[in-house]
Design a protein that fits this description.
alpha/beta; Isopropylmalate Dehydrogenase; Rossmann fold; two-stranded antiparallel sheet; about 40% helix
Length: about 375
């Protein structure tokens, strides 16, 4: 059922995060202007490393609850290398919200868009268009787990013994694997297939030849994927996958992968489609969803206005797609399309790009240009 106003919990984050989130909101507001009946109420939160530095709390309970109660969470990058817990790990709001709200599916599209360039020889637009579905609440990052929904805290719980031994375990559960593989297969059903042959394909990426945990992941992958006879089952060991993403990215359609492996290969994937600054993502659960670029806060560039906001803006586009599906709202789906069309028009034009894409424009200039194109293309 459509909503009159979507309440969006906004976490600007650290470093360059506030600069990026400002551009994302600017673009969403331009969509709101051109689509009658589509309305947003943005609720900005203080959750950040800076808040922890000042108060000793990174995400206050009331802000965690605000994220839970919102229609969606729109987040900038968080984390500063010099702000850490006593055990040496960085503050991790991402994991706190992913685990605490059970946002089990991390969706990261890798797409070479019109106007973009790639470092891969002989690859062109249309050759690179796949989606990584990353399990988001288990794997090696499960050492951050605990009852976060109640404690509103996230801190690594791995073992360090007498400053001589450190242990973090890989956690793979049947439930967690079944639901992420099902999500990947359902997504493949909706897509057009791999660029190379049009086949709907789900590739399971693991290290099943060495580790029992990943062999278990692959076993459950087979059990679930067999229920989708129209989907081609495919397999790749993580080390081989890194070369195939570079050599034959056109072979992939949907990739399903454990938490940490997914974190790593999506940075590589983004580099093949222009820049890590181009990478958006969605964190999806049964009741909540959070949208953010895949990259970090890049604190050395804070205040310089040089970072690429497209990943942040396309994360907003993914947010509208999700809201449109969840609430059967064609206006939100239309808004998502307008953002994607405006971004691609900007890339094709090629005159307003940040340094990572070979241009010299400022962050806000890219945001202004995309917002303007949305209005011009209406």
């Amino acid at each position: 059922m459509q909503k009159e106003t979507y309440v969006i919990a906004v976490i600007p984050g650290d470093g360059t995060g506030p600069e990026l989130i400002d551009q994302g909101i600017k673009v969403l507001e331009s969509v709101q202007e051109v689509i009658p009946g589509l309305k947003f109420s943005f609720k900005k939160l203080e959750t950040s490393s800076d808040l922890y530095r000042r108060t000793g709390v990174v995400c206050p309970p009331d802000e965690f609850d605000a994220c839970r109660d919102a229609d969606a969470i729109y987040k900038g990058p968080i984390g500063l290398p010099d702000v850490r817990y006593p055990d040496g790990t960085e503050l991790n709001v991402d994991i706190m919200l992913r685990f605490g709200l059970d946002l089990y599916a991390n969706i990261r599209p890798i797409k070479l868009r019109p106007g973009s360039t790639t470092i891969l020889k002989d690859k062109k637009v249309g050759d690179i268009d796949y989606v990584v579905v990353r399990e988001n609440t288990e794997g090696i990052y499960a050492s951050w787990a605990g009852d976060i929904a109640k404690t509103k805290k996230a801190q690594a719980s791995g073992i360090i013994l007498r400053d001589e031994l450190a242990i973090d375990n890989v956690v793979i559960t049947r439930k967690g694997t079944e639901r992420i593989v099902k999500y990947a297969c359902e997504l493949a059903k909706k897509r057009s297939g791999a660029p190379i042959d049009g086949k709907k394909r789900v590739t399971c990426v693991d290290k099943a030849n060495v580790l029992k945990s990943y062999a278990f992941f692959r076993k459950i992958f087979d059990e679930v994927a067999l229920k989708y006879p129209d989907i081609n089952r495919d397999y790749a060991y993580i080390d081989a996958m890194t070369q195939w993403m570079v050599r034959t990215p056109e072979y992939f359609d949907v990739v399903v992968v454990e938490n940490m492996f997914g974190d790593i290969i999506t940075d590589l994937g983004s580099a093949t489609v222009g820049s890590v600054g181009m990478g958006p993502s969605a964190n999806i659960g049964e009741d909540n969803a959070m949208f953010e670029p895949i990259h970090g806060s890049a604190p050395k560039y804070t205040g310089k206005g040089v970072v690429n906001p497209i990943g942040q803006i396309l994360s907003g586009q993914m947010m509208l797609e999700w809201l449109g599906e969840r609430y059967s709202d064609e206006k939100a789906k239309l808004g998502a399309k307008k953002i994607e069309d405006a971004v691609e028009a900007l890339l094709v034009e090629g005159t307003t790009l940040t340094a990572d894409l070979g241009g010299g424009s400022k962050t806000y200039e890219v945001g202004d240009a995309i917002a303007r194109k949305i209005k011009e293309m209406n």
